[in-house]
């Protein structure tokens, strides 16, 4: 299998061009290639496929082999891959995902895509659609006890489920201890991605993320969107344009408010290409 390793703000995936390559068991392949010691090393696997309903299809798998419906950093890299490798010459493309068709605008410099702006669709706030177990129809700053500690969280879906928690300090957070406890908490029947947020100023937030199926990653595009929406809903920021500072870089989020789509802008980078497994 020929592959390309790419990342968006350090959220790295192995990309396979399924116009020419075939992956028979993507769940098992995702686990194998993601291993940072015995595999290629990544947060998961992303298959780029032909589509009947959009220009391309993105099919994504986490490092544990579970399927993700949407990936904000991954879809920007899909855009870079298809443009840089001549599968399209369009700078506005559509990509079919597990959470619908997304439209992407590509910024090109010297013949290569540098940044991509994605229409991520509207956030889903209804508890049962996220899904999150709750007595209320929405979960905005609700108490939750996780691993014996009390937190407040806001839940929403950006095509995948997110819990956003505001803290005074995220740098010293023992995320490898608390992250899995949120992921498997009984409130989240489909597990959850959890964003831990420190507010920096009225338009900037700092974020660490524990991703469902992959653990701590350096960035999460859907998570950055969820965090910006939660920051606006909880009046933590006053701007509708929010900069999200992640361990692997910075993402820009725009949201005009309820019923409106969220826009995600950020970089996409190719790291290397190869073949897996090696011939010899
Ligand atoms: N890193 C991604 C999200 C990947 C899927 C997620 N772990 C899930 O299972 O929902 C992003 O950039 O959005």
From TrEMBL:
Class of this enzyme: isomerase
Catalytic activity: (2S,6S)-2,6-diaminopimelate = meso-2,6-diaminopimelate
Residues of the active site: 71 (proton donor), 71, 220 (proton acceptor)
Pfam families linked: DAP_epimerase (PF01678)
GO cellular component: cytosol
EC number(s) recorded for this UniProt protein: 5.1.1.7
A GO biological process held by the record: lysine biosynthetic process via diaminopimelate
Family membership noted in the UniProt record: Belongs to the diaminopimelate epimerase family.
Subunit structure: Homodimer.
Record's protein name: Diaminopimelate epimerase
Organism field: Bilifractor porci
């Amino acid at each position: 299998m020929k592959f390309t390793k790419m990342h968006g703000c350090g959220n790295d995936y192995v990309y396979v061009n399924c116009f020419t390559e075939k992956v028979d068991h993507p769940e098992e392949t995702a686990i194998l290639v993601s291993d940072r010691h015995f595999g290629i090393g990544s947060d998961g696997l992303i298959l780029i496929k032909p589509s009947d309903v959009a220009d391309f299809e993105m099919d994504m798998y986490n490092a544990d082999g579970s399927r993700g419906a949407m990936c904000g950093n991954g879809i920007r890299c899909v855009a870079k891959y298809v443009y840089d490798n001549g599968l399209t010459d369009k700078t506005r493309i559509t990509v079919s995902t597990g959470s619908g068709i997304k439209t992407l605008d590509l910024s090109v410099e010297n013949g290569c895509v540098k940044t991509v702006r994605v229409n991520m669709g509207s956030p889903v706030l209804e508890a049962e659609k996220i899904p999150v177990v709750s007595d209320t129809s929405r979960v905005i700053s609700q108490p939750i006890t996780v691993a014996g500690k009390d937190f407040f969280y806001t839940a929403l879906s950006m095509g995948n489920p997110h819990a956003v928690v505001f803290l005074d300090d995220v740098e010293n957070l023992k995320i490898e201890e608390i992250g899995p406890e949120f992921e498997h908490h009984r409130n989240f029947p489909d597990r959850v991605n959890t964003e831990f947020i420190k507010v920096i100023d009225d338009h900037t937030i700092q974020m660490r993320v524990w991703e469902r199926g992959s653990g701590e990653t350096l960035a999460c595009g859907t998570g950055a969107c969820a965090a910006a929406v939660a920051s606006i809903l909880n009046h933590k920021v006053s701007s509708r344009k929010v900069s999200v500072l992640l361990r692997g870089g910075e993402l820009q989020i725009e949201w005009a408010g309820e019923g409106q789509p969220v826009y995600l802008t950020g970089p996409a980078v190719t790291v290397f290409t190869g073949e897996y497994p090696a011939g010899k």
